[in-house]
Amino acid sequence: MAKISSILLISILYLSLLSACGITGSNENKENTMSTATAPSSPYRQIYTPIVDAQTDNALFSFIYLDDDDIPELVVCDMDYGWYSIYTIKEDSPFCLVDSINTVEMTYFKQTGIISSFARWNGGGDEGGYGKSYYQILKNETLTDDSIPLLQFSYNAIYDENGTYTGEGNTEYYYMGENTDETFYQEMLARLKAVEDRETVCLENAFEAEEMPSLSDH
User: Fold this and answer.
1) Residue 156 is part of which domain span?
2) Model-level pTM?
3) Beta partners for 35?
4) Helix, strand, coil: what percent of the chain each, to 5?
């Protein structure tokens, strides 16, 4: 009984930390699908459990290795609104690295500390607009939707005075929010190892809350 009480106390303390990371849609009536009786013994799962339990029923999760240590980061995505958050573990407690970035899709580059978000507008594609933002994760800071990307590009289709698509588009490149050229942009991506063959969708191995106990330990 003392052991169970101790675990419950730890869970309550973790839950009290979550509001600082913008978690929304907690479900008080949701059955605890990751109870201490069924969750694996992995310490990562025990620490991440309160975060998973606090999400809506339409949330998806995944484990990724964002930096160069052996601690898996937890990705949380609210599928209703496309909000992504990422957590890691610091001093045996969850720490929010990314707080509610809204994106069509979030990707990461394994063990580089780099994530990217994709956006589109005016229908997207060559006749609309789209862009990609790259962020460098810092262990002592939390990225939000208002954070300035390290690198970014945006494409916008060009229309004539009659509103007809000309078949051309304009691409702008940015470094820390300031205009730059494509050459520097590509050089920086290479330095950061944010290259295409290392890019992985954050939800590639996604699971729902009730599936977590059946996964092998990380």
Assistant:
1) 2-214
2) 0.79
3) none
4) 20, 35, 40
